[in-house]
C-alpha cells in the first residue's frame, strides 16, 4: 500500500555495513582510526555502566548515597589493609585534583568507614571495622551478581586480562596526549 502524499512514513533503518565501527561521533571516526573511535564509545558505555554498578552495589551492601569516586576510594583505602597517604590514593587512581580525594575522604570518615591519622605532616587513612565489613558485603554481592553473570556469559579470564592490559596501555597514550594538548 502506497503512502499518502505529504505524510511522513517511517523508513526502515539502513543496516550497518559489515566491519563498520560502532561509534557515537562519526565526525571523529572519519579520521585515520575509526577503531579508536569505537573504543572511545565503548569506554564511555563501560564507564557509565561500571559507575552505575558501583553505586547500586554499594547501596545493596547497605550504604546508598556514595558517588562512584567515593566507592573507588573506599576500596583503594581497604586494599591490603595498610594505611594510605592521600598522594598514594591519587597516584593509584590517577586523580589530579586533591580536593576530590579530600572531599571523598571527609565523607567516608563522617560515615565511619575510614579512620584518619596524622603521620608528621601527612594524613594516613585506613579502613575502619565498619568500612572493612561494608567492603566485604560489597564483595559478596559482586561475586553473586556480577562475577557469576560474567562467568556464565562473558569473556573468559584470559580475555579479561588481555582487555585490562590494552586499557592500561591506552590510558598511558591518553595521558600523554592530554599533556601534549595542554601545551598545544
What does it look like?
The chain is built from 7 helices and 3 strands. The model is unreliable at 1-15 (pLDDT under 50). Strand 2 and strand 3 (122-127) form a beta hairpin. Helix 2 packs across helix 3 (68-78), helix 2 (34-61) crosses helix 6 (129-153) and helix 3 (68-78) packs across helix 5. It has helices spanning 26-29, 34-61, 68-78, 86-93, 98-110, 129-153, 157-182, and strands spanning 84-85, 114-119, 122-127. It is globular, with a radius of gyration of 22 Å.
Shape field: globular
Q: Would you count the extended β strands for me? A: 3
Poorly predicted sequence stretches spanning 5 or more consecutive residues? 1-15
Helix content: 55-70%
Q: How does the helix and strand content classify structurally?
A: mainly alpha
Spatial sequence of strands, sheet with the most strands? 1-3-2
**Contiguous helical run count:** 7
> Distance N terminus to C terminus?
58 Å
Q: Proportion of β residues?
A: 5-15%
* Integer-rounded radius of gyration: 22 Å
The biggest sheet, with number of strands, parallel, antiparallel or mixed sense and barrel status, is: 3 strands, antiparallel
Please write the string of helix (H) and strand (E) elements: HHHEHHEEHH
Mean pLDDT: 90
Key descriptive features of the protein:
three-stranded antiparallel beta sheet, 184 residues, disordered N terminus, 7 helices, mainly alpha, globular, 8% strand
Amino acid at each position: 500500500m502506497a503512502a499518502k502524499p505529504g505524510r511522513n512514513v517511517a523508513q526502515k533503518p539502513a543496516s550497518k555495513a559489515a566491519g563498520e565501527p560502532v561509534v557515537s561521533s562519526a565526525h571523529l571516526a572519519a579520521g585515520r582510526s575509526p577503531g579508536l573511535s569505537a573504543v572511545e564509545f565503548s569506554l564511555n558505555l563501560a564507564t557509565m555502566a561500571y559507575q552505575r554498578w558501583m553505586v547500586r552495589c554499594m547501596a545493596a551492601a547497605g550504604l546508598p548515597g556514595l558517588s562512584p569516586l567515593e566507592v573507588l576510594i573506599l576500596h583503594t583505602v581497604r586494599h591490603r589493609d595498610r594505611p594510605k597517604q592521600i598522594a598514594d590514593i591519587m597516584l593509584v587512581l590517577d586523580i589530579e585534583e586533591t580536593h576530590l580525594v579530600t572531599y571523598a575522604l571527609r565523607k567516608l570518615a563522617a560515615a565511619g568507614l575510614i579512620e584518619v591519622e596524622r603521620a608528621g605532616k601527612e594524613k594516613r587513612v585506613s579502613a575502619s571495622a565498619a568500612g572493612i565489613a561494608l567492603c566485604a558485603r560489597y564483595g559478596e554481592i559482586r561475586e553473586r551478581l556480577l562475577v557469576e553473570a560474567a562467568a556464565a556469559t562473558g569473556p573468559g579470564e584470559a580475555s579479561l586480562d588481555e582487555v585490562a592490559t590494552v586499557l592500561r596501555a591506552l590510558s598511558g597514550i591518553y595521558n600523554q596526549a592530554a599533556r601534549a594538548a595542554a601545551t598545544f
